[in-house]
Automatic annotation (TrEMBL):
Domain N-acetyltransferase: 7-172
Family affiliation: Belongs to the acetyltransferase family. RimJ subfamily.
Organism lineage: Bacteria, Bacillati, Bacillota, Bacilli, Bacillales
The keyword Protein biosynthesis belongs to this UniProt entry's keyword annotation: no
UniProt cross-references to Pfam families, sorted A to Z: Acetyltransf_3
InterPro entries: Acyl_CoA_acyltransferase, GNAT_dom, N-acetyltransferase
Record keywords: Acyltransferase, Transferase
Gene3D superfamilies hit by this protein: 3.40.630.30
Protein name (database record): Acetyltransferase
Length: 178
């Protein structure tokens, strides 16, 4: 469990599935992700949660539900995919469309970055976004990740290839700055 001023980040439970499906079914949300399907399959969130539970047992992912404290509603998901060999994590997140623009994405990402370095002991944390998704790469900039470069047409979605920008921070950089 991670607390910030307005959010609670807690492990995902099977009962979150309906709400995840409700928010993630919005095309506006799915279209800038690499892995949220559209249309979202019925029952897909339950399968997703079960699949993640298996990876969690192996220490390969931390997936947390983002809860708005004031409403106690689930408003998003945030995760770090962990590569154990290289001791690095890839940050990923989505916030439900009705909750965009309130700083929640930044608040949640900052908290998980701190957790990843201070509690999980990762050596590097990075994140990637389509270059056409400023909301996401601005979150990366606002939490202090450094722009590392653009991979051209790196990801395909619905028949279109997208340039992807990578941002990252090493453990040394994190502790030098904090
Ligand atoms: C990316 C996402 C999580 C951001 O969440 P959020 O809670 O709205 O983010 P914040 O409110 O913390 O805003 C972050 C910054 O992005 C800016 N921003 C938000 N939407 C924007 C847009 N459409 N164009 C440009 N900037 C935008 C905000 O203004 C803010 O910058 P500022 O503080 O300098 O003004 C959310 O847009 C989302 O879930 N998108 C769909 C899923 C997704 O793309 N996930 C990332 C995959 S890599």
């Amino acid at each position: 469990m991670i607390e910030t001023s307005r959010l609670r980040l807690r492990p995902v439970v099977l009962e979150d599935a309906w709400r995840i499906e409700e928010l993630a079914s919005d095309y506006e949300l799915a279209k800038t992700t690499s892995n949220v399907p559209h249309p979202y399959p019925k029952g897909g969130a339950k399968d997703f949660i079960k699949m993640v539970a298996e990876k969690e047992k192996k220490g390969e992912i931390i997936l947390l539900s983002v809860i708005e404290k004031s409403s106690t509603q689930l408003i998003g998901l945030i995760n770090i995919n962990i590569n154990l060999t290289h001791n690095r994590g890839e940050l990923g997140y989505w916030i439900g469309v009705p909750y965009w623009g309130k700083g929640y994405g930044t608040e949640a990402a900052k908290a998980l970055l701190t957790y990843g370095f201070e509690e999980t002991g990762l050596n590097r944390i990075y994140a990637a976004a389509y270059t056409i998704n400023p909301a996401s790469w601005k979150v990366m900039e606002k939490i202090g990740l450094e722009r590392e470069g653009v991979l051209k047409q790196h990801l395909a979605r619905a028949g279109t290839y997208y340039d992807v920008v990578y941002y990252g921070m090493t453990r040394d950089e994190y502790f030098e700055r904090s």
